[in-house]
Give the backbone structure.
Amino acid sequence: MESYDISLEGMLFSFLLLLIPIIISYYLGMKLISSIIESAFRMVLQLLFVGVFLTFVFDQNIALLNIAWVLVMIFVASHTVLKNAELKAGKLLPMLLLFMAVTNYAMLLYFNRFIIDLNNVFDARYFIPIGGMVLGNSLRANIIGMENFCSDIQRNENRYLFRLSMGAEKTEALVPYLRKSLGVALKPTLANMATIGIVFIPGMMTGQILAGASPLVAIEYQIAIMIAIFVTTMVNVLLGLLVLMQRGFDGYGIFRKELIRSS
Amino acid sequence: MELLDIQNLSVSFDGKTILSDFNLSVVKGDKILIKGKSGIGKSTLFRMIMGFGKHHLGEIFLDKVKVDSDNIWDIRKKVAYVLQDTDIAEGKVSDLVDEVFSFKANKDAYGKEQLERIMSDLFLSPRILNKEYMKLSGGEKQRICLMLALLSGKDIFLLDEVTAELDVTLKQKVVEMFFDNPQWTVLSISHDREWEDKATKVIDFSGKVN
């Protein structure tokens, strides 16, 4: 079986679809047109670059290069998390980066070694796309978790201070916030897992089926990747929140409001 | 013996001076009423003692030790702080009690009889433990907060308008509970007259505004 290459004409038809959101935002006066064009343009540029770059990386297939590329992905991911959670990078980024690197590399090695049973666990064809799926999917949860934690601790500061004044250690006083933020962050991933296959056919499965794999192989991969995503997401969010608990409070246990990016 | 000593404390917030060169010395067993218009730094003083505010000049000593970020955690284990703002929890009252007394610092703080005694002193029915905290009346929430402070076994109390929402009988009762114990050191911010009769010292903040 073979997959069909999309022709240039096909690509043009794809861009043609963008006229619909552009027309809608024009008539509703949403001032979105420039962001739509900018986002689409960025997507094309980034993917073009990645396409060329990945062709090179896949051809070379050098373990070190693959590891380095995943590190770039992790760096961009942790940066994006902080930016979208409206947090300043300075104090939080190094630790978050370290934690995310440990969990994501560990999950990748486990996945490739024990689940797929690859001879070369650093094989570019697996290492990079699977790394991307796991990271990309845990990104949103991470943002939700950190945002929720910061806004809760500020909105309900009184409750937190009450616990401190009742003699709680910082960790004891923060555990209820941690529990809640982690729960909120995991909800979308859990919902995804529960509705997968029926409500939506995920990208990985679609990709494999389009590439000619049998649906049965596709679902095996899908189940394995979904579990990997869920586990990594939970650990990533937990570690992200621990970074906030560690770095986000001063010696008196008071939340450092200066970490929040002022809009 | 001097227990709490505040020297030249100045606090400003957003460029506005809230406390300026404030001094106070508290001896063990003192019962101090702090009164004065709202918004002139009475609550800020308590927040500073508990380490909940920054940017202050001057120094605070507890038991002759200067309060800083290292020992504030021990101070919070010695000093009970109760506020008029009682938005402290969601869920059942008993869960709140369990949570507070699951903290390492409070593990052996109280027994069941003590809980029952304090609840009956505050006219709280045992049934209240099964109710949702957020659904309680203002006065009930206030009494739950006082109950937690009393159960914690501490002997220094900072009370910020804790009788404002209570009826006259309860006001009287609460004042007696705190001011009649000779071992306790109590600082109470209040507009209620009941405190004044039993206070060993009254500080009127209105006279201290610059």
Remarks:
- DSSP finds seven helices and nine strands in chain B.
- Chain B touches chain A at residues 50-52, 54, 68-70, 72-73, 76-77, 79-81, 83, 85, 87-89, 99-100, 102-106, 148, 152 (CB under 8 Å).
- The radius of gyration of chain B is 17 Å.
